[in-house]
Amino acid sequence: MSGGGGDRGEPPPFAVLVLEDGRAFHGRAYGAVGETFGEAVFSTGMTGYQETLTDPSYHRQVVVMTAPHVGNTGVNDEDPESARIWVSGYVVRDPARKPSNWRSQRSLDEELVAQGVVGISGVDTRALTRHLRERGAMRVGIFSGDAIPDEGTLLAKVRKAPEMTGADLSAEVATKEAYVVPAIGTKRFTVAAAEVATKEAYVVPAIGTKRFTVAAIDLGIKGMTPLRMAERGIEVHVLPATATLEEVYAVNPDGVFFSNGPGDPSTADHPVALMQGVLERSTPLFGICFGNQILGRALGFGTFKLKYGHRGINQPVQDRTTGKVEVTAHNHGFAVDAPLDKVSDTKFGRAEVSHVCLNDQVVEGLQLLDRPAFSVQYHPEAAAGPHDAAYLFDRFVSLMEGQRA
Ligand SMILES: NC(=O)CC[C@H](N)C(=O)O
């Protein structure tokens, strides 16, 4: 059964989206027909829907696209950030009837059907987004098919679905086995047994030499992240979320990286303890998104849930260490609670907020002043998004160079 796209004569079945506060939106099935639940969040990215759908940090979230046309460039096998779609549901206004792009291999509707992802189209996504902005992110259900129960029954189901606060999800999305992404060279990336991983489709662009080894803790890593490191001569050993300190140091790393990932950082006790072990040894350390929240916790700061989060590819962030403003890719619903206006004394020395979001002053980066460690709340690997923040990978390289000098 297929949903909202396509040139088929039959319109797709009716669908309804029910929010946990009782508001409902009606439309047509898009992608698979059935029912699904998750946290309703909105993304403001005008492009990059493939990257959004396959970002493991969206596990258990129903993504509402504010861009009205979705699916215009179809789906290809080169752009996914992992081996599958992770969003639990997809909400669009007006799906493309026919994809058009030289790289397109199939329609987004077909891809959603093939992967069993339930979506809805024809929704007034502006009204829905405004509702979420006013009321905050909340649970939602999408139901489609010929026999949809009444809204009271649907609402009861939505209110029984698990909440995002308190959700410990990294282990559900991370690789189960370690694998190696080689440094820049003539080889293609090959990935073993990774449920969430780069695919062979990545071609390493130039020939160079291996300069560093990095242990990357996969909490739901996007495929572009090891690629950005590999481009800088780093051989990346991607380790499962459950890796121990011994396993990290067994690869003899010059640096340790903590990835993005789904869920509530206040549950991530194992990664926090692991990071504290790395900080004690003063090994150069870099964290992205979930990794930033884990650094916050490792230093003794709290984390909290934002009202509706930051998701999209046009968020202005200031690097307070240089004063420069960069336009950046985001996907986070939680944030670190650290003071913006002073250097904090932590058990690993002095720490400060290095980056801040200019829309709402949310902490977007942390750095230690006495140890080689830093992190950002957003996505310097982009995919999709602007490349303004790629310098952060060079900063990681500088830390590793500094440690050798
Ligand atoms: N992209 C991420 O790493 C997201 C981190 C965390 N799950 C959040 O929502 O804030």
From TrEMBL:
PROSITE patterns (alphabetical): GATASE_TYPE_1
Superkingdom per UniProt: Bacteria
Pathway: Pyrimidine metabolism; UMP biosynthesis via de novo pathway; (S)-dihydroorotate from bicarbonate: step 1/3; Amino-acid biosynthesis; L-arginine biosynthesis; carbamoyl phosphate from bicarbonate: step 1/1
A GO molecular function held by the record: glutaminase activity
UniProt-listed SMART domains: CPSase_sm_chain
Stored Pfam families: CPSase_sm_chain, GATase
Stretches for region CPSase: 1-211
Residues passing through the membrane, by range: none
Chain sites annotated for binding L-glutamine: 57, 261, 263, 290, 293, 331, 333-334
UniProt-annotated catalytic positions: 289 (nucleophile), 379, 381
CDD domains: GATase1_CPSase
Listed EC numbers: 6.3.5.5
GO biological process: 'de novo' pyrimidine nucleobase biosynthetic process; 'de novo' UMP biosynthetic process; glutamine metabolic process; L-arginine biosynthetic process
Quaternary organization: Composed of two chains; the small (or glutamine) chain promotes the hydrolysis of glutamine to ammonia, which is used by the large (or ammonia) chain to synthesize carbamoyl phosphate. Tetramer of heterodimers (alpha,beta)4.
Stated role: Small subunit of the glutamine-dependent carbamoyl phosphate synthetase (CPSase). CPSase catalyzes the formation of carbamoyl phosphate from the ammonia moiety of glutamine, carbonate, and phosphate donated by ATP, constituting the first step of 2 biosynthetic pathways, one leading to arginine and/or urea and the other to pyrimidine nucleotides. The small subunit (glutamine amidotransferase) binds and cleaves glutamine to supply the large subunit with the substrate ammonia.
Protein name: Carbamoyl phosphate synthase small chain
Organism taxonomic ancestry: Bacteria, Bacillati, Actinomycetota, Actinomycetes, Kitasatosporales
